[in-house]
Write a sequence for this structure.
């Protein structure tokens, strides 16, 4: 845990979180805290339990045991696949979710989000006609409609090209600067190193590491190497 | 729920093909059924050949001649006759498809009828040649001709009996008959008996003829009694049996109204189930289900919204359809509020079944296919006549029909449209119970959508 983060209050916390699907255990005794304004990347190989962890934090699934602490009603959720209606326009999608979120002034919230994700000029277009990157921006905008204290994103950059990714992470940085806690899962460990304040390393449902990317490299030790190599070596050392 | 309904209507508005199908399908179905039910059946074209020589179509019975040729025009009421002049031409016309059938009246038919009515021996037979390539048309032509032939047969029998009874009355009471252009007076049994009684009274008391004539009077008494009894018996043979029908199930629905009700409920079922199953599965395909149920909307409210959307749209379409059909078939507009209640409740029950399917199938295409595949046997099983199957199978079919909403919806709509038995109360309660049951099933099934 970085010294800066430790001075801030925890926005999201998990205590001994376990999730079982029948015989299979997707998460095993996972505990951590994420602080206000932090950008935390959840990384790990396929099937590590990243999406399960985020969906429990988002309130979509209940844990088999353990506790989750989230700011009540103030968690934004951005699923991996854009969860938006392709037959509705950008503005209609935003307005629908603003109303369902019971935002006091839905029209103002829609205008604000259109501005924020720079889609004002395309607000009347059906979402199904937008590129994957623009659909993801709408997806993120919906997650932000309720002005959440914490934003959870599942593989947010998976369908984006490099320029769109750059834009997305710039966007996330702005949110962090505003005090919004951002937790996201990713396969791209370089992205995690570059944009995350801390990383959570999950493998086979176990939380193996919580700390900054630099701390992870330090744990692996040896001569200076890139973060991706350090991450792979870390997993190898832990039998994954 | 309001904003979800608005959203779904926006989506439907942007799916013009789907909406067009939802509107055009029931209206087109209503029009087709209406035309089919209100149009009288056409007359089948039948080649007609009579081999009876001109002027020979009469039979002699008792004191009168009966012209059996005059009954041919009755037969022509139900067919479109194409007069042919040979048997080969008749057969050729049937083979070529120019006519559906050929009716051939053989030359000896008057003699055969004459023999039958006078001696009881004879087999008057007409020949019917049918085109067997199309079983439906074959049945149509066969039925039209057979029914009319039965009418002709009965008319000839009545005429023969009428002559027999008249002649019998003359034997009893006397009268005038024509023979070889001359009028002859018949004395009759009753008059003969009176004359004999007077003659016996005039004879001397010891005359030997008294006893002999007394025996003749006795015979006349017996004959008068027997023949007087025979006349009404013979007369009754023309119309031997009258059926006085009493239906214990109360007033029944006219066949055309029942057919119209089936078409309305079938359309309602298809539209509701496809819409409910498809729109719920769409929430998952758009990945929106998880986002919605994480606190924005409860799963129960989302299911209720789909049921209201599908059931409401389908009930409205079914009402339009019923109104369209009512221009062809008699439906009781005075019971319109009950139409609404029956169709809305049926829509809710089918909607609940639809969302259960949508929850189980999860994908729009799979959900639509499953809804369509399920709806056909559900309707078919509910429509199987109970008398058409054995006891065990009937119980099984009844049980299957009971757990799906089609039969209850049909009973409710049937009563709403025509006020006939059974009453509307039980079918409405049944629909409500099924809606609750399928709603509960859907609530369990949607857990799979996350």
């Amino acid at each position: 845990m970085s010294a800066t983060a430790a001075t801030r209050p925890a926005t999201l916390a998990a205590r001994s979180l376990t999730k079982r699907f029948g015989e299979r255990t997707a998460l095993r005794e996972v505990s951590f805290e994420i602080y206000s304004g932090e950008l935390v990347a959840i990384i790990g190989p396929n099937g590590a339990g990243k999406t399960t962890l985020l969906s429990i934090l988002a309130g979509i699934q209940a844990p088999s045991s353990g506790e989750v602490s989230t700011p009540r009603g103030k968690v934004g959720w951005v699923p991996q696949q854009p969860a938006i209606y392709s037959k509705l326009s950008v503005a209609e999608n935003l307005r629908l979710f603003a109303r369902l979120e019971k935002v006091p002034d839905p029209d103002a919230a829609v205008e604000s989000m259109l501005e924020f994700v720079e889609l004002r000029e395309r607000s009347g277009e059906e979402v199904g006609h937008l590129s994957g990157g623009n659909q993801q921006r709408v997806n993120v905008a919906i997650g932000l409609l309720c002005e959440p204290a914490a934003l959870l994103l599942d593989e947010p950059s998976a369908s984006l090209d490099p320029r769109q990714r750059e834009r997305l992470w710039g966007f996330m940085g702005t949110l962090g600067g505003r005090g919004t806690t951002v937790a996201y899962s990713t396969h791209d460990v370089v992205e995690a190193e570059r944009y995350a304040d801390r990383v959570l390393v999950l493998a086979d449902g176990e939380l193996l590491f919580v700390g900054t990317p630099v701390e992870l490299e330090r744990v692996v030790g040896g001569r200076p190497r890139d973060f991706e190599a350090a991450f792979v070596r870390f997993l190898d050392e832990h039998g994954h | 729920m309001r904003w979800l309904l608005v959203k779904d209507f926006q989506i439907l508005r942007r799916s013009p093909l789907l909406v067009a199908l939802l509107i055009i399908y029931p209206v087109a179905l209503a029009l087709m059924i209406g035309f089919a039910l209100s149009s009288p059946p056409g007359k089948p074209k039948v080649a007609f050949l009579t081999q009876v020589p001109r002027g020979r179509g009469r039979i002699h019975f008792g004191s009168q001649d009966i012209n059996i040729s005059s009954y041919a025009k009755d037969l022509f009421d139900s067919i479109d006759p194409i007069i042919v002049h040979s048997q080969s031409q008749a057969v050729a016309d049937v083979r070529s498809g120019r006519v559906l059938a050929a009716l051939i009246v053989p030359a000896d038919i008057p003699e055969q009828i004459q023999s039958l009515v006078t001696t009881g021996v004879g087999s008057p037979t007409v020949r019917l040649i049918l085109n067997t390539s199309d079983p439906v048309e074959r049945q149509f032509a066969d039925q039209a001709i057979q029914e009319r032939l039965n009418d002709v047969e009965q008319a000839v029998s009545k005429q023969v009996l009428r002559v027999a009874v008249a002649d019998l009355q003359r034997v009893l009471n006397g009268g005038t008959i024509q023979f070889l252009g001359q009028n002859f007076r018949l004395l009759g049994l009753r008059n003969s008996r009176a004359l004999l009684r007077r003659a016996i009274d005039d004879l001397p008391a010891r005359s030997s003829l008294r006893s002999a004539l007394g025996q003749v009077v006795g015979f006349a008494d017996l004959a008068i009694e027997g023949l007087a009894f025979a006349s009404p018996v013979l007369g009754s043979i023309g119309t031997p049996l009258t059926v006085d029908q009493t239906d214990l199930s109360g007033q029944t629905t006219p066949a055309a109204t029942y057919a119209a009700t089936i078409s309305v409920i079938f359309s309602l079922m298809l539209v509701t189930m496809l819409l409910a199953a498809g729109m719920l599965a769409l929430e998952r395909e758009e990945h929106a289900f998880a986002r919605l149920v994480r606190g924005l909307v409860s799963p129960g409210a989302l299911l209720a919204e789909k049921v209201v959307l599908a059931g409401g749209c389908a009930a409205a379409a079914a009402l339009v359809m019923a109104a369209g059909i009512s221009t062809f078939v008699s439906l009781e507009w005075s019971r319109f509020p009950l139409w609404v209640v029956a169709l809305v409740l049926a829509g809710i029950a089918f909607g609940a079944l639809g969302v259960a399917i949508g929850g189980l199938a999860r994908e729009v295409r799979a959900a639509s296919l499953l809804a369509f595949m399920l709806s056909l046997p559900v309707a078919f099983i509910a429509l199987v006549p109970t008398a058409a199957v054995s006891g065990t199978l009937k119980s099984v079919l009844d049980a299957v029909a009971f757990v799906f909403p089609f039969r209850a919806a049909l009973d409710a709509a049937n009563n709403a449209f025509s006020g006939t038995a059974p009453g509307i109360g039980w079918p409405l309660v049944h629909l409500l119970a099924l809606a609750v049951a399928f709603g509960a099933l859907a609530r369990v099934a949607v857990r799979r959508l996350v």
